[in-house]
Amino acid sequence: MSGRTDSKRFRVRRDSIPAARRHVRTVLIGWKLGGLVDDASLIAGELATNVISHAKGTGDYFELGLRRRNGVLILEVADSYQWRMPELRKPADDETSGRGLLIVDALAEQWGVRPRNPGKTVWAHLSVGAGHR
Prior knowledge:
The chain is of the alpha+beta class. The chain has helices spanning 16-30, 37-54, 100-107; strands spanning 4-11, 61-69, 72-79, 110-115, 120-127.
């Protein structure tokens, strides 16, 4: 079944991170994509954490979007923070944060960032068949 879409707004606060993960789990199980739940909910949690950590004071909400198109699950997190786009980096061994995009990069088929007005959208693609690796 292709062509499914879901979008939900979350407040920019720490308790939205597990709420976003739960939402991804609920939607994907409903779409019969249970094999993608772990990777997709982890990616959603990492991207939501980035919003909470780096986009404070730039808006009350972020948006989590899920789309299934042509064998790909597209997960997007959009916020209104526009001054700094996220970049993949390798943190030092003694740093206690900074590994979120490394996790996204390891799990997603591909990912990226696109500007929007105002802000940005960070997206990740998971192959629908990837849930059976």
